[in-house]
Amino acid sequence: MKYIDEFRDGAIAKKIQARLHAEAQPARQYSFMEFCGGHTHAISRYGIGELLPHNVRMIHGPGCPVCVLPIGRIDLAIQLALERGAIVCTYGDTMRVPASGGLSLVRAKARGGDIRMVYSGADALEIARREPGREVVFFAIGFETTTPPTALTIRTAQQEGLKNFSVLCCHVLTPSAITHILESPEVRQFGTVPIDGFVGPAHVSIVIGSAPYEHFAEEYRKPVVIAGFEPLDVMQAVLMLVRQVNEGRAEVENEFTRAVNRDGNLHAQALVSQVFELRNSFEWRGLGEVPYSALKIRPAFAEFDAERRFGLGYQPVPDNKACECGAILRGVKKPTDCKIFGTVCTPENPVGSCMVSSEGACAAHYSYGRFKDIAVKVEVAA
Ligand code: SF4
Questions:
Q1: What gap in Å lies between CA 42 and CA 16, rounded to an integer?
Q2: What is the pLDDT of residues 121-144, one digit of tens each?
Q3: Relative to the CA of 353, which ligand 1 atom is closest?
């Protein structure tokens, strides 16, 4: 398949692996964070960690939109369905994220909430058109990738004069989260890991371009290489990061030139800024309150803002005490450091959010990596 097969070629992977082993200097340690859940998934699924030199460590970052959704936000969506009688529409993965009181959206649906899985905000809009007598709320989550379609949905609702449609906006921003990981006060609580550079997001960068990372690379002296989601993309990006570290450079480089340019999609950016503005602060699961890291709906579209329409008040809710998602999302711990990994907490019964989506660090490790941690006993017949 064009643009897929050539980025999964085993012979080329071996060549990149050989270059990595030749260029990674044995006397130093390299730690790179892949911010994006898509990269975390690719690293686990294709066993990329096994191909890297032993002194090159990949740290899984908080770039899975489902994993960073805090309990309090899901509680708001459940409240809309169970207490306000609204039809709540959202993406499939969001349905299973654990919320307060042992609930999730899918469990609230079993209790009678009218909660529907949709593939896009446009699907939710269509439900609102079909059911004018009901309030329909689109529970919108995601990074810069899913934000333009939500903006388009809100603008369309306004143009059509829909009176029964609104959006519970939980869209978050990548660059602010990366900055927060490096300098937040919580670093004292969770400890910190040395990060030598970042594998930059793929789909997010198609929308925002590579330019927003330039200030970041300069300010924090950390290289960023934007990479696609195929295994060779990730390996090439790691090689480019190793080279930057060896040469003492901290620049933004673009491995994903087939889809990303410096400026991004200007049309999508204009649409987003027409409909949304910055929130002063937003809670991320595992990261806590992150300043200027999320979007809210502008006053010109206030009637489509579910928070204003229903007078919702946000209440933060602490994570399950056993859950180590906070430390995992910062790269301080690995999934297997959590005592309930693979026993109480599994993809079928996620306790923490990192186990919900296939892009979450715990789910990726559960699906593709957990057996390599188990010692295999070989008994030789006498
Ligand atoms: S195993 Fe479950 S509870 Fe533990 S850190 Fe991962 S998602 Fe959280």
A1: 16
A2: 999 999 999 999 999 999 999 999
A3: 7
